Each structure stands twice: as C-alpha cells, then as structure tokens.
C-alpha cells in the first residue's frame, strides 16, 4: 500500500497557462475527492468521483476547471487559463465505500503558484 | 458560506495536560463529523470520527464529543504529547459522503 500519490508536488506557471495535476488513489478505492487549500484555511471541496462518475461538483469549480477519472483509477484536474487566484495547494483524497466511507486518505498535495 | 467553523486559530498546552479543540457547524443535515491532523508538507491524516447518533467516541487518548442541539463538537486529547503538535481540522458530511466541509483549522502546540 503506497498511499495516495499526487504529481507534480510543485508547479509554477505563468498566468494564462494551462496546468494539469494527477492523483493516484489507493488501489481499489472507488471514491476520489479533490480539494483546494489556501493559506490559513481548511481544505475546500472541489469535486467527487465514485468510480469514473463525477457525482458532485462545487460551485467554486468554474468552467476553467475540469476533472476526469477515465477508468475509475487515477484522476486528473486541469485548470485552463490560470489566474493568480488559483495559487493554492490542491489535495486529492480517496476512500473505499465498503469499508469506512467516512475515512478519507489524503495525498501530499500539489502546490500551484501562478505568477 | 462557512458551514464548519473553528474559531480558535491556535492553542498552546503543556505536555501531559488536556487539549480541547472546538468546532461549530451550521448545517443540520450533517450526519458525520471527523477530525484530521496535519503536519507541514503532508496531507491531512484521519484521526477520529463520530456519527450523529452518538454523543461520544473514544480512541485511545482521543475523544470526540458531539452536542447536536448546540451544533458543536470538540476533540479532547489526554494526555497531550509534544508529537501531537500539528494543525487539527474538523470536518463534516451528510450521510452520502459526497462532499466534506472543513473548518479553517486549529494549530496545537504542546510544550514539553
């Protein structure tokens, strides 16, 4: 069990560029969540997948944000036309429904800096 | 719209004493409440949870208390240890677990 992994760990980009982050959940975990965390705040929910289906999306997820989980395993989060306000830590978490649905396992996060 | 609130950004406690971290929520639809611990440069780690049908859940040195009428929960750590120094997040979810709401965190410092 290697835990939840996220790549890259850090990303620096210029305003207006597109970025994509990847999350590999714990094997067999069917639920996957994306969060955004800014300094001094808690994780803020962005979106939720059960297997490959995206079942919940936050209002905060503007049309510049898109997430996929094509085969129900890894997931990607893409931000188009990045803005300075997108600078944050992006966290991914996974759970296994049939065991402990309330227990999320978080990855280390991807820190995005938009210049 | 902050549905989960942690009003104390920081707490300092002497080793061996009790640490009490507080959390308030506004949404009566929440059925599950969780506490996470976070060290720098790591993602949050699950600590303990409680469902709305209970008012107390204990796991070793950690106890969570839920007061549904007051929409308040608290995490007690007894005895506190220096290794407990971290940021603690309170979180809540409805029973479908489709979305979790987190508080802004309380930074606990346990002094040796």
How would you sum up this structure in a few lines?
Chain A is mainly beta and 115 residues long. Helices cover 0% and strands 49% of the residues of chain A. Chain B contains no helices and eleven strands.
Tally of helical segments of chain B = 0
Biggest interface between chains = A-B, 26 and 25 residues
Give the number of DSSP strands of chain B. 11
Instruction: Specify the helix fraction band of chain B.
Output: under 10%
Mean pLDDT level of chain B = 95
Compressed to H and E, one letter per element, the order of chain B equals EEEEEEEEEEE
Query: Which structural category do the helix and sheet elements of chain A fall into?
Result: mainly beta
Gap between N and C termini of chain A: 36 Å
Report the biggest beta sheet of chain B as strand number plus sense, adding barrel if it closes.
6 strands, mixed
Indicate the radius of gyration of chain B in whole angstroms: 13 Å
As residue ranges, the low-confidence spans of chain A are: none
Amino-to-carboxy terminus distance of chain B: 38 Å
Describe this structure in words.
Chain A is built from no helices and eleven strands. In chain A, strands 2, 4, 5, 6, 9, 10 and 11 form a seven-stranded mixed beta sheet that branches. A four-stranded antiparallel beta sheet of chain A has the order 1-3-8-7, with no helix packed on it. In chain A, 0% of the residues lie in helices and 49% in strands. Chain B is mainly beta and 112 residues long. In chain B, the strands form two sheets. In chain B, strands 2, 4, 5, 9, 10 and 11 form a six-stranded mixed beta sheet that branches. Classes of the chains: A mainly beta (115), B mainly beta (112). At the A-B interface, strand 4, strand 5, strand 9 and strand 10 of A face strand 4, strand 5, strand 9 and strand 10 of B.
């Amino acid at each position: 069990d290697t835990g939840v992994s996220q790549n890259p760990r850090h990303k620096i980009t210029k305003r207006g560029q597109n970025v994509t982050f990847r999350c590999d959940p714990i094997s067999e975990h069917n639920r996957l969540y994306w969060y955004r965390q800014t300094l001094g705040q808690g994780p803020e929910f962005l979106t939720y997948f059960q297997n490959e289906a995206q079942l919940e999306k936050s209002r905060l997820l503007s049309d510049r944000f898109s997430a996929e989980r094509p085969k129900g395993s890894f997931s990607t989060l893409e931000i188009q036309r990045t803005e300075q306000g997108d600078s944050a830590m992006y966290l991914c978490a996974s759970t296994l429904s049939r065991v402990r649905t309330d227990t999320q396992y978080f990855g280390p996060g991807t820190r995005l800096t938009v210049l | 719209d902050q549905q989960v609130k942690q009003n104390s950004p920081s707490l300092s406690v002497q080793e061996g004493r009790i640490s009490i971290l507080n959390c308030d929520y506004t949404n009566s639809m929440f059925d599950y409440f969780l506490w996470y611990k976070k060290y720098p440069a790591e993602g949050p780690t699950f600590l303990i949870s409680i469902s709305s049908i209970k008012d107390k859940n204990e796991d070793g040195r950690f106890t969570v208390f839920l007061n549904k009428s007051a929409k308040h929960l608290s995490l007690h750590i007894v005895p506190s240890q220096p290794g407990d120094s971290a940021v603690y997040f309170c979180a809540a979810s409805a029973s479908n677990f489709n979305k979790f709401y987190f508080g802004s965190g309380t930074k606990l410092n346990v002094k040796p």
